[in-house]
């Protein structure tokens, strides 16, 4: 299967880009267009490492491909720097939605940390409202082109700071004004969900859903903490859950696997895994298994019945799209349209939406794949 320069490919005669998709793990500050970075940086007299958009895209790709989450996260210093004004946040959010539409996404959840966007005087509330304004502008523009999309905010707290309870209350305050869920992000190793137990207790008392970054830069204890301390309804990445699986034997295509209690719980409860193949390679999240996409435990998790979903994590850093991630997986593991549909249905079922709206989303995906 040939993947073109835009990351698209034809599968069974169908363009993957044309298929309806659901994006659950997509960072706002990880999806800023390089040209937008250059223009916004110029407005605030900020130096950028490259003045040409293509060269800047190359810079992000090179710096992100380090095998370390800590090093990977340093590239966000540049993107967050140009997202400190209302105008900058609104523009980035609007373009983010436009890029989702171009990617064939019909429902997306965009995660971002308001506490990282206050350097030029915005309040937390003003930052949330600026992003929501941009989202709505993007949705309205799509509607004028007869393209349906809905995007919700995942309000995120940084796990290495002490503002998580404040951010949790912010998320709940905006639950009817764009916010659909909560997350903690940032350096995972050494900053377990237990440090934010007060925030998660508050969210639980308000029946507000949470997804938690876990099982990326840290292992099984991080995932346990996400489920027990964070009451996570989804696992952000969760790829290292495969450490709780022991391959006992292989015979041809048949693999006998012994489950640990944690892996069995996640599988049996159908807790969605927000897997991001390209990002997982860049950050070294799959180092225990190898360094290529063929080594990624995605297919093992899928074949064992886990609720796997496909995500981009950070479009700019990984120079990718949901279309490209699906094309790479299809090429690597010989998936067909039925497999790609399962991934979208898993994501729709795990979306932070009321059940009626999830059922509607599932119907949209089914109709789109049938066509």
From TrEMBL:
Keyword vocabulary terms for this entry: Hydrolase, Metal-binding, Zinc
Entries under InterPro entries matching the protein: A_deaminase_dom (IPR001365), Ado/ade_deaminase (IPR006330), Metal_Hydrolase (IPR032466)
Gene3D superfamilies, sorted: Metal-dependent hydrolases (3.20.20.140)
All copies of domain Adenosine deaminase, residue ranges: 20-363
EC numbers on record: 3.5.4.4
Keyword Hydrolase: yes
Cofactor(s) required, per the database record: Zn(2+)
Enzyme class: hydrolase
Keyword Transmembrane helix: no
Family annotation (PANTHER family): ADENOSINE DEAMINASE (PTHR11409:SF43)
Similarity comment: Belongs to the metallo-dependent hydrolases superfamily. Adenosine and AMP deaminases family.
Name of this chain's protein: adenosine deaminase
Organism: Microbacterium awajiense
